[in-house]
Write a structure and sequence with these properties.
The protein is built from seven helices and no strands. The protein has 181 residues and is mainly alpha-helical. Among the domains are: 52-123, no CATH class; 137-181, no CATH class. It is elongated and about 90 Å long. It is a multi-pass membrane protein. It is found in: Mitochondrion inner membrane.
């Protein structure tokens, strides 16, 4: 698509004006480019400020992580119940729909509790560390992963606690690196 003579002339005159013609300081001030500004947003209402503070609080983040963890755990439990064979039924040859539903419900509840506790602990420790340190960086996630993994593994002993802390910290570091990357 070729430009018309008027467009070429305008383009040429702009280039000459910017780069080639010497101008005095007064001329330059008259040609100042004023950027377009957008009107600022109106100030937040007290209710909006309250909601914003609540959503940024550690308690809200922790509860939200627990609820989302429960939901993800329930879905994961339903999935694993559909893939794994039914273990709680005495005679596998006589499996009924009721038995499958009961097994699926039990697994969904167990996984929901576990994932909910993990989300609660991780988010709680991360937000607490972020508040204490006054920084939002990768260390918060790695440290909270180590604390969470260590406490979860501590139920089985010292060696599992160390392994859990290292594993959760490494997993948290990988996730933080990927998300912040």
């Amino acid at each position: 698509m070729e430009k018309s003579d008027d467009e070429k002339l305008t383009y040429r005159s702009i280039i000459k004006r910017i780069f080639l013609s010497p101008r005095s300081k007064g001329e330059m001030q008259n040609d100042a480019v004023v950027p377009l500004t957008f009107p600022s947003a109106p100030p937040l209402l007290p209710e909006e400020v309250f909601i914003q503070r609540v959503m940024e609080s550690c308690i809200f983040k922790t509860i939200l992580a627990a609820v989302v963890g429960c939901g993800a755990g329930a879905l994961f439990g339903i999935f694993t119940a559909s893939v794994d064979p039914v273990h709680t039924i005495a005679d596998p040859a006589k499996v009924t729909v009721q038995d499958v539903i009961r097994e699926t419900r039990q697994r969904a509840v167990i996984y929901a509790k576990n994932f909910g506790v993990l989300g609660l602990m991780f988010a709680g420790f991360e937000c607490t560390l972020e508040t204490y340190r006054g920084k939002t960086d990768m260390k918060n996630g790695v440290l909270s992963g180590a604390i969470t993994g260590g406490l979860i593994g501590l139920r089985a002993g010292i060696k599992p606690a160390i392994l859990g802390a290292v594993s959760f910290a490494a997993f948290s570091a990988i996730i933080e690196h990927y998300l912040r990357g």
